[in-house]
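Quick check before the chapter quiz. The format below is the same one you will see on the exam, so make sure you can read both the input and the output lines.
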Amino acid sequence: MNNIGHVHLDMGNYSQALKTFEQSLDTQQESENKYVMATSFNGISKVHRYFGNLDKAIQFQDKTEKMARNINAKELIAQSLNVKGEILLEMADFDTAIASLKESLEICEEATLKSDLPSTLTLLAQAIMRKSSEKKNRKEAEKYLKEALKTAQNSKEKKAICTALLGYIELHHLQKQYKKAKKICNDLLTTVENENLQNLFPEVLFLKGENLIALGEEKAAFKYFEKSLELAKQQGQKRLIIKIKNFL
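Here is the expected output.
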């Protein structure tokens, strides 16, 4: 059932995803399957992050991590630390986010867990960039992004590739390389639409608008912001809605 919940997540059907994860949790509490329960907590946490309920997201991620550590489920521990890092990044708690993501990365490398590597590496790069835009931080971030993209391309996992490229857009904006960022935005829009990665679509549209603002193309930018806002409202992405409204 959790697998179905994650399909709904990828499609941007967050209310349905939450319902599915909660149903799975209710079922597993009777059988006390801790692995599946931890996976359900993880899914619920992800939904609350999209909804902008960051305190709830952290609470459910703490439950995920605690249960995963109790049963020594390395993959789940790494996933939990990854999602926790992403939440903390949005809360601007950069030092704690970096610590969480570095531990996730260490577990992934020790246990050869390749599926979560691109996401963890990308988030780590973003946390480093947002903590400080100094040149040495940008260089360190770029090192992680290169590794993230290489790992994602080797796996041929489209979502992982897209996630790494989102990190590159942020880096190019910091470097004021707006034309490079524009090309990535255009390629991402095509990929996300073709691969039906609906949960990424509003974010990519927003970044495209942000990129056009940086290039001085305000009129064109607002079209992307409006489309991003429309999709974010449909999906209930409250955190993204707030970001978009700051530009409108």
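If your answer matched, good. The chain has a mean pLDDT of 92.
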